């Protein structure tokens, strides 16, 4: 027996885009035309029915995202994405990173029409930034996520036929990245900044926790419970649980710290953000005549843990990674070193 057709609610209009996507709109008399979720579901608890009831009663009708750019321009798309639920669900650090790129792209190319943006033009824009490959890849990442969201949400159904950023490849960066601290460099830094200084505490927090700079500068007394550090990773949103190692506890006890944040700047105030902390710590490194920076200490910690035999999942828990990729990188590197040292005598001709 064929399924009974769903009844049509009043004040609804069904439309189909040129790509075949069914769209529903609510309009009461000469009132505003309100877009409803695409999935026509009469269940009272469904998103469709909740949006329908809100439109019918005039309560909690979602406000249209604002933009100072004309509709169907790149600036308009970026504004819609930045005000979307998808963007709001990102980790704070990711939102900040994307936000910097979005602002720069809008200022330079916000008025460009979306129909004029092609795969070729995005590739040219990436190549124009090739002298700074990390910046080029950051630009491309934002273009990819914004266009992908626009296509997936249906916002661009009647604007463009295909995602122009989807097939553009990242620039392959062959580099070791941030310098990894050596034991000699750590000892040189410690000699310049003895126990009890804020600069020494910063190093000890980085070295004894392996936390990102985005997290370590925010550590305060409220994060330390029963000899453990409990902190939510700003990048992934996951919780990290770490023991307060004796060396770190000694450093905390010897330093006149803050309360809500242990680390304070030269004015005795909490660092405004991760960038400000990184700049302050970088100056401390320069005065100690060492090349390392905050992220390089995280790399040194990950290398040490891997060389001591930590498993992939142990490393994911310690460093707050939400995928195996980085953990596998460090464990493979450690395994190669171990195997080379254990069997290097095979090269001996005697």
UniProtKB/TrEMBL annotation:
DNA-binding is among the record's keywords: yes
UniProt keywords, alphabetically: DNA integration, DNA recombination, DNA-binding
Molecular function terms, GO-annotated: DNA binding
Domain Tyr recombinase span(s) in chain numbering: 176-343
Any one Pfam family match given in the protein's UniProt record, by short name: Phage_integrase
GO BP annotations, alphabetical order: DNA integration; DNA recombination
Domain of life of the source: Bacteria
Keyword DNA-binding tagged: yes
Family of the protein in this entry: Belongs to the 'phage' integrase family.
Descriptive protein name: Site-specific recombinase XerD
Gene source species: Roseibium alexandrii (strain DSM 17067 / NCIMB 14079 / DFL-11)
Classification lineage: Bacteria, Pseudomonadati, Pseudomonadota, Alphaproteobacteria, Hyphomicrobiales
């Amino acid at each position: 027996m064929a399924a009974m057709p769903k009844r049509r609610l009043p004040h609804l209009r069904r439309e189909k885009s040129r790509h075949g996507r069914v769209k529903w709109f609510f309009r009461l008399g000469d009132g505003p035309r309100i877009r409803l979720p695409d999935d026509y579901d009469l269940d009272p608890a469904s998103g469709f029915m909740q949006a329908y009831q809100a439109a019918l009663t005039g309560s909690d009708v979602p406000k249209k995202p604002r933009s100072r750019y004309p509709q169907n321009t790149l600036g308009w798309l970026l504004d819609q994405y930045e005000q979307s639920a998808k963007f709001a669900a990102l980790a704070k650090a990711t939102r900040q990173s994307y936000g910097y790129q979005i602002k720069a792209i809008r200022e330079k190319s916000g008025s460009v029409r979306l129909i004029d943006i092609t795969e070729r033009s995005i590739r040219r824009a990436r190549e124009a930034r090739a002298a700074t490959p990390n910046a080029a890849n950051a630009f491309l990442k934002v273009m990819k996520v914004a266009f992908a969201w626009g296509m997936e949400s249906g916002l661009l159904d009647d604007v463009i036929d295909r995602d122009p950023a989807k097939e553009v490849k990242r620039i392959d960066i062959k580099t070791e990245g941030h310098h990894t601290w050596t034991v000699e460099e750590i000892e040189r830094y410690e000699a310049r900044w003895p126990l009890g200084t804020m600069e020494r505490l910063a190093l000890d927090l980085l070295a004894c926790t392996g936390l990102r700079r985005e997290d370590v500068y925010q550590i305060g007394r409220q994060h330390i419970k029963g000899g453990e550090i409990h902190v939510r990773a700003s990048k992934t949103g996951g919780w990290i649980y770490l023991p307060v190692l004796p060396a770190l506890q000694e450093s905390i006890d010897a330093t006149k710290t803050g309360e809500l944040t242990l680390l304070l700047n030269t004015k005795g105030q909490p660092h405004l953000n991760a960038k400000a902390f990184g700049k302050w710590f970088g100056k401390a490194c320069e005065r100690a005549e060492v090349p390392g920076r905050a992220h390089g200490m995280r790399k040194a910690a990950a290398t040490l843990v891997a060389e001591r035999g930590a498993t992939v999942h142990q490393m994911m828990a310690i460093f707050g990674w939400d995928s195996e990729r980085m953990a596998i990188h460090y464990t493979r590197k450690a395994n190669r070193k171990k195997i080379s040292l254990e069997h290097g005598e095979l090269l001996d001709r005697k």
